[in-house]
Write a structure and sequence with these properties.
Helix content is about 40%, strand content about 15%. The protein is an alpha/beta fold. Helix 7 links the parallel strand 7 and strand 8. Bound molecules: SN-glycerol-3-phosphate (G3P). SN-glycerol-3-phosphate binds next to strand 8 and helix 8.
Length: about 230
C-alpha cells in the first residue's frame, strides 16, 4: 500500500453500487497523480466486475472470511480474491466483526500469500488485544463505531483515541489510519496532525453531490504530508 492514503469505503450504499463503482475507481486513479494512495473498498457483489486494467491498483475488497476454496457457502475465500488479482482488503470493519483468532489466521495467511490487509478496530483496547495476539496487517484503522456515519469526525471528537492508537502502532511498527465521521479537508488535516498515515471515509464521499470534489480536497490535504 502507498501512504498517506485515502480509502473510500463504498459499503453497500446504493450510491456506491453497480455502475457507480466505476466512477469512484476512475476518480481514485486520477487522484493518485497527487502522489498519495487512493483506494476504493468495493462491495463483494461488484468487485469482480472491476478487476481489469489499472483498477487493480485501487480496488480494495471489503472483507474475506475464509482462506481456501471449499465448502464455504456464502463466504469469500482469500485464495479466490488472489486468483482474481485483488491486492488489498479491509477486515474486521465495525459492520462486519470477526472473532480475533480467525482474524489472526486470515491476516497470517494474507501476509504469506501476498494480499495486503487493513484491519479495523473499534477501540484502542481491541487494537491492543490484536497486537497481543500477534496480528500484523499492513495497517490498522481505528474507527469508533458511534461516530461512523455521524458527520462528526474522530479526528476532532475523539483525538485522544487516535493519538493512543498511533502510539501503539508506532511501538510495533504498524501504520495506523483513522475513520468515522471524517467529512471535510479540515477533518483530514486534523487526523494527519494526530499522526495517522491516512483516513477511511464513506458517507461524506459516497453520498456527496459531487464525490470527486470531496475526494480531491481530501487527497490534496494528504499530499501535504508526503
Ligand atoms: O470504513 C469507513 C467508515 O466506517 C466510516 O464511515 O460514513 O463515517 O465516513 P463514515
Amino acid at each position: 500500500m502507498e501512504f498517506p492514503c485515502l480509502i473510500v469505503n463504498l459499503k453497500n450504499y446504493l450510491e456506491g453500487s453497480g455502475d457507480r463503482v466505476k466512477m469512484f475507481l476512475d476518480y481514485a486513479l486520477d487522484l493518485r497523480d497527487l502522489g498519495v494512495g487512493v483506494y476504493v473498498a468495493v462491495s463483494p457483489l461488484d468487485l469482480s466486475r472491476y478487476l481489469y486494467g489499472d483498477y487493480y491498483r485501487v480496488v480494495f475488497s471489503q472483507v474475506f472470511d475464509v482462506v481456501d476454496y471449499g465448502s464455504y457457502t456464502g463466504h469469500i475465500p482469500l485464495k479466490r480474491l488472489l486468483d482474481l488479482g485483488v491486492k488489498y482488503s479491509l477486515l474486521n470493519h465495525s459492520e462486519y466483526k470477526m472473532p480475533h483468532n480467525r482474524l489472526r489466521d486470515l491476516v497470517d495467511a494474507a501476509n504469506s500469500l501476498g494480499l495486503e490487509t487493513v484491519v479495523c478496530v473499534d477501540s484502542v483496547s481491541e487494537f491492543r488485544s490484536l497486537i497481543d495476539l500477534g496480528v500484523r496487517p499492513s495497517a490498522f484503522a481505528i474507527e469508533p463505531p458511534e461516530l461512523i456515519g455521524s458527520g462528526r469526525s474522530v479526528s476532532k471528537y475523539k483525538p485522544e483515541t487516535v493519538v493512543e492508537a498511533v502510539g501503539l502502532g508506532n511501538s510495533y511498527g504498524v501504520p495506523v489510519l483513522c475513520g468515522a465521521g471524517v467529512s471535510t479537508r479540515d477533518d483530514v488535516d486534523a487526523a494527519m496532525r494526530l499522526g495517522v498515515r491516512g483516513v477511511l471515509v464513506a458517507s461524506a464521499i459516497v453520498k456527496a453531490d459531487d464525490p470527486y470534489v470531496v475526494m480531491k480536497s481530501m487527497a490534496e490535504v494528504l499530499a501535504l504530508f508526503t
